[in-house]
Amino acid sequence: MQKEAKWNLVFLTLLIILLIPGAVILVNKKLDPKSHRMGGPDPVRRTTAYIDPFDVPEDFRRLVPPKADAWTTTLGQTYSGRTPENRLSYKGQPIVSEARQFEVLDYARNPEGIQFVALIWNLPEDKPPSEVKAKAAVGKDAVDPLRIKTQTLSVPEDVLEEFRTAGFIRPGQHAELVIVQFPDLPDPTAKKPAELMLQVYQNGPTKPDFVRLFTSPEAATQPAR
Description:
Structural class: alpha+beta
CATH class of the largest domain: Mainly Beta
Strand order of the largest sheet: 3-4-5-9-8
Helix content: 10-25%
CATH architecture of the largest domain: Sandwich
Distance between the termini: 83 Å
Number of helices: 3
Number of strands: 11
Radius of gyration: 25 Å
Number of domains: 2
């Protein structure tokens, strides 16, 4: 074999060795049903997670991933005692505040009044807040809480992955559990729903965020939105 032919053979051998890892990756991607299409542009996404605070077009669908739903259900049960079948919801959807900063997981009447359980998803800077303030009202008069407790939670990785898959690319890795006890509030009517307001402080206060919901036993899962 001529010298030039030997060098060509060596070159081809090295080239094949270098290309093998890329070929393996390509084959694995083609075999993975969850991977993006290899040819042409990716399809335009029309979904996002229900807690995504950013404005999206009207034709977008907000998804409630099953693992996120299971996690928040467990948190609500832990502090309210409500069973999964009677979970606080509206038309089967979580009760999320106007700006999607927080979610009301549950509430419970007790001898002192009403205890709300909420989860602040979108924390400023994704850090534990320096302070959280709360108010409640039925009608125009705001009511201060008797006490408020907060706890910073790490969002489970499988929940974060569900949010990313749904279309919320950068969900916060932390959430703030808020348990707030109010004195007894009068049962609301269709014209006067109960209103819960939370405000987060982190290097200055964020804009207050609200959610409106009924708290009467007959209409416990019917928020006015």
